[in-house]
Design a protein that fits this description.
Elements: E1 15-16, E2 22-23, E3 26-32, E4 40-47, E5 52-53, E6 56-58, E7 62-75, E8 81-84, E9 88-91, E10 97-101, E11 107-114, E12 121-123, H1 129-135
Length: 141
């Protein structure tokens, strides 16, 4: 490659995240996909209020750059943590976790992930509504 590649925003198609791995409305904009020697994936993920991922793991480190709204991340067996625009979350390989929006708020992050084959993510059960409601605080203004 001798030059930069520019992909205009208008050429990107927003997709709805697959219902089998997410609860609620979650939108995904693929910014970068693995090509040739690069294994890097970058996706803007926008969660409607109350939307979230299922419990899951990754074979590689995941980096979440929080861009807007208020969200949360929870590691299985630990207390959830509130996320705000500008926060950066590093999830080590193999760690069971979920992330998404808090009650009443939109939340967006860019997910950076190095992809190691088609089974890079291991999706598990949904975060049950009773559990989500017990940990999902409504942030104070």
């Amino acid at each position: 490659m001798d030059d930069v590649t520019i992909r205009p925003a208008a050429a990107r198609v927003t997709k709805t995240a697959p219902a089998e791995n997410f609860t609620g409305t979650v939108l995904q904009d693929a910014y970068a996909a693995p090509t040739d020697a690069s294994r890097t994936s970058a996706t803007l993920v926008t969660f409607a209020p109350g939307a979230r991922t299922n419990w899951h793991t990754h074979k590689t480190r995941q980096v979440l750059v929080c861009t807007s709204g208020t969200g949360m991340v929870e590691v299985r067996g630990k207390a959830p943590q509130i996320l705000h625009a500008g926060d950066v979350v590093e999830v080590p390989p193999g760690l069971v976790h979920w992330h998404g929006a808090v009650v009443g708020h939109l939340f967006s992050h860019i997910s950076f992930l190095e992809i190691e084959g088609p089974d890079n993510n291991s999706w598990m059960e949904p975060v049950h509504e009773a559990h989500y409601q017990s940990v999902a605080v409504t942030p104070k203004a």
